[in-house]
Amino acid sequence: MSTAAASTPIAAPTTAPSRNEMEAFWMPFTANRQFKSRPRMLAKASGMHYWTPEGRQILDGVAGLWCVNAGHGRPEIAEAVANQLRQMDYAPPFQMGHPAAFELANRVVKLAPPGLDHVFFTNSGSESVDTALKIALAYHRVRGEATRTRLIGRERGYHGVGFGGISVGGISPNRKMWSASLIPGVDHLPHTHDPARNAFSRGEPAHGAHLAEELERLVALHDASTIAAVIIEPIAGSTGVLIPPKGYLKRVREICDRHGILLIFDEVITAFGRTGSAFAALEFGVTPDLITTAKGLTNGCIPMGAVIARKSVYEAFMQGPDNAIELFHGYTYSAHPTACAAGLATLDIYDREGLLTRARKLAPQWEEAAHSLRGVPHVIDVRNYGLILGLELESIPGKVGARAFDAYVKCFERGLLIRQTADIIALSPPLIVEPSQIDQMFTTLREVLSAAA
Ligand SMILES: Cc1ncc(COP(=O)(O)O)c(C=O)c1O
Predict the structure, then answer these.
(1) Cα–Cα distance between 154 and 330 in angstroms, integer?
(2) What number does the ligand 1 atom closest to the CA of 233 have?
(3) Shortest CA distance to 167 belongs to which of 147, 149, 192, 141?
(4) What is residue 10's predicted lDDT score, i.e. its pLDDT?
(5) Cβ(372)–Cβ(365) under 8 Å?
(6) CA of 190 to the centre of ligand 1 (A)
(7) Rounded to an integer, what distance in angstroms lies between the CA atom of residue 432 and that of residue 422?
C-alpha cells in the first residue's frame, strides 16, 4: 500500500546524545545500564520505517509498540493536530465540552460492537484499565449490589501499570515489588498457554476452552454476590502473545452472564484492526460489557485511551438530581482537543484505506511465513492471529530471555524492530505493511535465529 507518509523525504540524521547526556532519563521497562552502554536510538519515522540518528533504516515489525497501526508520520494527523492546537489548545473536560470530543465518541461507538455505545476518554491503556475497573465496581454499587467488590483477572495478563492494572494483571515482575499494596479482593483465572497440546497452532488453538470453567470454581469459592467483574485480554500481547482457545471467550461470557458479573475486554492492543476486525470482540463474536482501548485510537501519536461501555452500564449511573456528578472520575487531559483531533484523523485514515480489515487479507501470507520458521533451531512454538506473531524460543538453561534478547539486538542491527518478552518474540506491524515487507521480516528473523544456533 502506498501512503503519502511512505514517500515523505527524511531529513538529515539528528545527533544522538552522549553517554553523559543519557543519564538523566530513567527509561521505562528498560535495562537502563545496558541500554546506556549500547544504545539503540531512533530519530525519525515514516510509513513502515524508523531511522536511527546515523540514518540507518529500520523496518518496524511492531507498529512502535502495537500502536502505529496506520504507519508512521501520517501528514493528515499532523495537520489535524496542528490545526487543533492553533484553534484551541486545551479545554477543561469537567463540566465543559468541545465538539471534537463528542464527534470522536460517536465515531468510536460506530466501530464498537453493537450495544457498547458510551465512551469515557483517558490518556493511556493503564488509565483505561483502572477506569474500567472503577466503573465496574461503582456500577454494582449504584445498582444496590455493593457487595460485588471482587475483581478477577488472569495469570499472565497485562493490564498496564496502575495499581488496579497490576492487581488484576498476572505478570510477577510487574507485581512483586508492590505485592503488599495491590488492591484487595482480586483473584486470577489460569492462563490458557498450553504448548504441550497447542504448539504451532494456526489461529485459535484447539485446546483450552475448558479453562473458562475455572471461573465457575471462583464463583463457587467466593459467591457471585461478591464478584464485580472479570477482565481479560482477548489476545494477550505483552505476556508473549496468547491466542484464546476456540470457544474459550464465549464460555467466559456465558458464565459471567449466568452470575451477573461484568466482562471487561482489555483491547488496548487488539482494537483498531490488529485481528482483522475493528475490535477483537467483533472478530471472536463475543460482546463484553466494557472495552478498554488506547494505542491505535490515535495511531500512537498523541496519548489517548478510551473505555467503551454498554448502554446499561452508563444508564445505571444516570440517576439522582440532575445537577449531581454521576461518576467521580476523570483526568485533566480526558478528551484533550489535540488527542481528539488525532483520533478523528486516524479513524478517517483507517476508514479510507480499509485498514481495520486489512489484517484479514494479509493473514494467510502472514501465517504461512510465520509457520515456515518451524524447524529453525530453538523455535519451540509459532502462533499467529491477524497480523500478530508469537514465536517462542527454547530458553538457555539459567538464562531465561537471553536468547530472544540476543535475537532482538541482532534483528535491530539488521534493520528490523521486533519485540521480546522473556524468550518469546512478537511481531505486530503497522497495518499498512506490504507483502514484500512481511517477507523481509520473516527472512531477517530466520537469518538471525539460524546464525545464532
Ligand atoms: C492489554 C494492555 N492493557 C493495558 C496496557 C497499558 O497501556 P499503556 O502502556 O498505554 O498504559 C497495555 C500496553 O501494552 C496492554 O497491552
Answers:
(1) 26
(2) 1
(3) 149
(4) 54
(5) no
(6) 20
(7) 28
Q: What is the pLDDT of residue 7?
A: 42
Average pLDDT, the chain: 96
| CA atoms of 110 and 343, how far apart (whole Å) | 14
List, for residues 375-421, the tens digit of each pLDDT value: 999 999 999 999 999 999 999 999 999 999 999 999 999 999 999 99
CA 452 – CA 204 distance, rounded (Å): 30
Distance between Cα 452 and ligand 1 center (Å) = 31
Ligand 1 pocket mutation, candidates 131, 158, 231, 299, criterion most atoms within 8 A of CB: 158
What average pLDDT does the segment 114-131 reach?
A: 98
Strands 186-189 and 150-154: parallel
Going by C-alpha positions, the residue among 360, 432, 354 that lies closest to residue 1 is: 432
Convert the pLDDT of each residue in 283-293 to its tens digit: 999 999 999 99
Mean pLDDT of 425-446: 98
What is the pLDDT, as a whole number, of residue 267? Answer: 98
pLDDT in tens, 292-302: 999 999 999 99
Q: Say if residue 305 is exposed, middle or buried (CB neighbours under 10 Å; 0-12, 13-18, 19+).
A: buried
Q: Which of 130, 231, 268, 299 maximizes ligand 1 atoms within 8 Å of its Cβ, making it the mutation to test the pocket?
A: 268
Residues with CB under 6 A from ligand 1: 124-126, 129, 158-160, 233, 237-238, 266, 268-269, 294
pTM: 0.96
Nearest CA residue ID for atom 13, ligand 1: 160
Distance (angstroms) between ligand 1 centre and the Cα of 387 equals 18
